[in-house]
Design brief:
mainly alpha; signal
Length: 282
């Protein structure tokens, strides 16, 4: 009888233990599912910020933020998506709300400053940049600092910021091109030419730098195309730019010849060059 009683206690204990284990397993499963959902959501957010269509990205983050209001990562994603979608003013509002909530970071302030610059709100952008701790030394921060200094014609400060930004990235072509364009606007054509060449050494495919290089050379009356990689279409477009630069400098005959060459070089009908040539001949 005593043995039967002990067996009954053991069975009861085993049943209770199984029940406890089941409860623990359910809790662990729920936590695991939640963790997986967070990971999946994080991966999806990353995809939407990189390869997704900008408008789809905006819709995704808007919808997800409505379901999870106040989450800083979603606000950040929406602000970045709005910038990609060409809506800097709306982006600035999201950045402002995030920073005002106390959940923003120094990098968020950099994003806010860029949205303000894209919205042509330069004084506001400068004020935001001034609030960023000096220890936050990043490529984007100094790139924007250079642009603000440029807008105020503080050339020495702009050069210093451009130089610092170029040293903080492994892909400096864009900032070197911007720096060169700044030099071009100042009338330092030789300095601009040097920077555009440096930009193209880092990214031989950057057509904007190629076009700017031709402008800098044209301003110095260098009317031969630079030795850079170019397609036939790009060659025609660069000849067109150089032809207009020559006309602007008063070298009309050279300009006409360059425009004629541009029309002949282009693989299709080059309407803009043909129109400019006709106007010049007329």
């Amino acid at each position: 009888m005593r043995q039967i009683f002990l067996i009954g206690l053991c069975l009861a204990g085993m049943t209770s233990l199984a029940a406890c284990n089941k409860g623990l397993d359910d809790a662990e499963v729920k936590r695991a599912i939640k963790d997986v959902n967070v990971i999946d959501e994080s991966n999806l957010s990353e995809i939407m910020l990189t390869v997704g269509d900008p408008n789809e990205s905006v819709a995704y983050f808007t919808r997800t933020l409505q379901q999870n209001p106040g989450r800083p990562d979603l606000q950040r994603g929406l602000a970045k998506s709005l910038m990609r979608a060409g809506q800097p003013e709306d982006s600035a509002k999201i950045w402002s709300g995030l920073i005002g909530s106390g959940q923003g970071t120094a990098e968020d302030q950099v994003g806010y400053a860029e949205a303000l610059i894209r919205s042509n709100k330069w004084p506001e952008a400068e004020a935001v940049l001034n609030q960023i701790p000096p220890t936050h030394e990043t490529y984007d921060r100094y790139r924007l600092e250079a642009m603000v200094a440029d807008s105020k014609k503080q050339w020495q400060k702009a050069d210093s910021f451009y130089d610092t930004a170029a040293g903080l990235t492994t892909r400096p072509a864009s900032v070197l091109n911007n720096w060169g364009y700044s030099k071009l606007n100042r009338g330092d054509y030789a300095g601009a030419e040097k920077l555009f060449n440096e930009a193209l050494k880092n990214d031989p495919s950057m057509f904007t730098a190629k076009n700017n290089l031709v402008l800098a050379r044209g301003a110095q009356r260098k009317y031969d195309l630079p030795v850079v990689e170019m397609t036939q279409r790009e060659r025609a477009e660069l000849l067109y730019t150089l032809g207009l630069a020559a006309v602007k400098r008063g070298d009309v005959t050279v300009g006409r010849n360059l425009l004629e060459e541009a029309v002949e070089t282009h693989p299709q009908h080059f309407e803009a060059a043909a129109r400019s040539l006709a106007a010049l001949q007329g």
